Amino acid sequence: PYVVTDDCIKCKYTDCVEVCPVDCFYEGENMLVIHPDECIDCGVCEPECPAEAIVPDTDDRATKWLELNRDYATKWPNITRKKDALPDADEWKGKSGKLDLLSP
Ligand code: SF4
Ligand code: F3S
Asked: What is the DSSP letter of 28?
């Protein structure tokens, strides 16, 4: 599957949800996650993210985020429609190490 990394935190552009053919994105307050058992690995969401927050699970960056995606995908509600990005999204874009800022 593909996974959302902490690059999404405080950005949440939501362009990704519009293209997912199986609607497997789930929404937290300041981050989205992908349900790894529902993702069909199509890859169309990856280039849609302005923050480059989505990676395949074969990426080195993915390992540490896979369980986080699985965990929150069962707790957060499904999201299928694009909405406005978070207000300071452009300022937070490209910043790494944002896990401490996650609002569960
Ligand atoms: Fe959805 Fe495809 Fe992205 Fe998986 S890779 S989350 S199925 S758009
Ligand atoms: Fe997050 Fe990128 Fe989607 S910032 S909400 S993974 S478009």
From this structure: -
Q: Which two tokens stand for residue 21?
A: 């053919």
- CA–centroid distance, 20 to ligand 1, in Å, is 5
Written out in words, the top-level CATH class of the domain with range 2-83 is alpha beta
Tokens of 15: 């362009």
Ligand positioned closest to the Cα atom of 53: 2
What's the pTM value of the predicted model, to 2 decimals?
0.97
What residue segments make up the domains of the chain, in order of their start?
A: 2-83
CB of 3 within 8 A of CB of 36? yes
Q: Complex ipTM, two decimals?
A: 0.98
How do strand 25-27 and strand 54-56 relate by DSSP bridges?
unpaired
